[in-house]
Amino acid sequence: MKAKVMNKNEIMQVTEMKSIIRVVENVYCMKSKGETVVWPTTFHVFEEGKADMDIKSGYLPSQGVFGHKTVSFFAENVAKGLPTLVGVINVFDAKTGCLTGILEGAYITGIRTGAAGAIGAKYLARKNSETLFILGAGNQAAFQIAACITTFPALKKVYVADVLNHENAVRFVNGIQERLAKEFGIDTSGIRFEAAADLSEAVPDSDIVITVTPSRTPVIKKEWIRPGMHLSCIGADAEGKEEIEPEIFRNAKVFVDDMYHCVEAGESEIPIKRGMIEKENLTEIGKLISGECDGRSSDEDITIFDATGMALMDIAAANVALAMAEEKGLGTDIEL
Question: Looking at residue 131, what is its pLDDT?
Fold first, then answer.
């Protein structure tokens, strides 16, 4: 049995943001039509807020593949000179059960998660949105910014906030333009980047808010939310996690990536448990993308996209990377 192994650098050579956005949109549509299978997630916390891991898996019949991803977050890896997010994706042929690929998982996780946040904004934010606010100054913030600039080329300003350590946001902002140019080929000469020290000023000044932290205490307050804003909530992917005040859900139009996981462990979990919104008020975004339902109906609507993340996106993106690597002669073929 032969399988292809791909490292981060090889994956970066065969993936680009526009194509990954299309891949993720396609997965959302297939998911909402019942054309995919998602198996239960295994999640374990080694140290609260500092170290955890999850195993996600799924099956894409139309692509003839299934697979799983194991990814871990270890905050203290920074001091050890190691990445905080580490993962591996395994892809299998659904006709034979044979392993076809083993891929470094952190980069694919990063780029497909960035695509997810931007897709929420693409279909729910106002088309004339010009200001983006990112809560979180970690590695994922760069992917969210890259995806949003790709989707909203008219963006003029990007706030980045780190509520635990403002200096992290300052360092991030100082280096983000160079990283976007080098890693994603994005020219940001017309965009102003700012480390937000006062969220009560930066959030209301924004059209799109994207949250990418492991917080278990709400950071974004209802009083900061103005009519017309869109929020993509990405960080809440386990029971008890929340980044925005539950009250924000009361009068918002809410879309999710996966109904079951978002109700159980997404940003929607706590508002539902507190009776601020019903499960019936949630709609999977694949239905919106495929035109089965409406999204924003006016410039005054407040919209929320709750994305816990699905292995389906990792598997689909990894499958594309494997095909492109085969064309370009990249990756290492191994016999098992």
Answer: 98
Cα 191 from Cα 78, distance rounded (Å): 29
Length of the chain: 336
CA dist 254 and 283 (Å) reads 7
Spans of the chain below 50 pLDDT: none
50 close to 62: Cβ distance less than 8 angstroms: no
CB within 8 A of 274, min separation 6: which ones? 246
Q: What is the pLDDT of residue 324?
A: 96
Q: Which amino acid is at 213?
A: T
Looking at domain 2-108+312-335, what is its CATH homologous superfamily?
ornithine cyclodeaminase, domain 1 (3.30.1780.10)
Q: What topology does CATH give the domain 126-309? A: Rossmann fold (3.40.50)
pLDDT value, residue 238: 79
Phi and psi angles of residue 278, each rounded to the nearest 5 degrees, phi first: -100, 155
Q: What is the pLDDT of residue 78?
A: 86
Report how far residue 164's alpha carbon sits from residue 137's, in angstroms, rounded to the nearest whole number.
Answer: 10
Identify the burial level of 227 via C-beta atoms within 10 angstroms of its C-beta, where 0-12 means exposed, 13-18 middle and 19 or more buried. Answer: exposed
pLDDT score at 14 = 96
